[in-house]
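Hi all, long-time lurker, first post. I run a small reading group and we've been trying to get comfortable going from sequence to structure in the token notation. Rather than ask abstract questions, I figured I'd post a concrete chain and ask someone more experienced to write out its structure so we can walk through it together at our next meeting. Sequence below, copied exactly:
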Amino acid sequence: MSKFWTDYPVIMNELADVKELIKKNIKSRERYLEESIYPMIDAGGKMLRPAFLLIAAKFGEYDSKKMHNLGAVIELLHIATLIHDDIIDDSKLRRGVETVQAKYGKEYAVYIGDFLFCQCFMMVSNYDYTTENLKDISKVISRICMGEISQYHLRYANSINLRKYIRIISGKTAALFALCFFIGAREANCDEDIQKLLGKIGYHIGMAFQIIDDLLDYNGDTRLLGKNALRDLKRGYYTLPLIFALEKDNENEISRFLDKDCIGDDDIEQIISLVRKYGGIERAAKVADRYNRKAMNMINKLPNCDSKEILMEIVPRLLKRNY
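-- Answer (accepted) --
Happy to help. Here is the structure in token form:
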């Protein structure tokens, strides 16, 4: 488990329960099945999505067993999408460990991801969750898929702009963050205004989180990120720092590198230098900061309680990370 929650032992212990619940629900007589999934579960992720769901639920009538199960569903859903993402991106590392597709092959990874999706539906049937929440989970899965489809369609497109980029990430990271906050609050019977406010908080955190993640590709390294730095650029996925730099690149210096049939490591270094030259990193950081400030302003409007205090403390840390 990540050390991110060390200062919040209640949340950390509950997330440990969520992790054990995930393992329990993917147990199989076929040992190789567990052996291929457990390393990713144990790799030290922050488990932000189930944590946000639990924190939001604590604003209302908190049923730990029911919420832990729902948190496990959300985290398992997230893991399944990551496994499928790694297949598309041909990623070798995830959370600092070898990906399922790199270790066992793409075909096997597809089946593993599909298996985890099926387990999510099985776990949802364990409790009497609201019909609205089940519909919202299905809608978000659809939005995530559509976000991936849109992103794939725009590969190598120098014409991608801020509006298209925002639409893509709002349908991926932000949608799932918003869902976690919203359904946690609704399942705990929070007032409707609190449900909506928490959902908006999740959206703004998710937007800032993804933009910062894209910035880390230009500022971080593979060891810290636990994935292949700048893999998106090599595969034609253009994120906000590059998009902003392209807007200022009147001499098409960057485009000359992007238009190559194969972008090498030396080309990557040149592109990074040009992105810095044209202020892409600084402009993207300002956009992330705007979402960050919106999230914090909304958190301030929440009722005073332990969950509010936790959000006030962790969100600034989360959105100023280098990993």
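A couple of things your group might point at:
Confidence is low (pLDDT under 50) at residues 222-229.
The CA atoms of residues 18 and 54 lie 10 Å apart.
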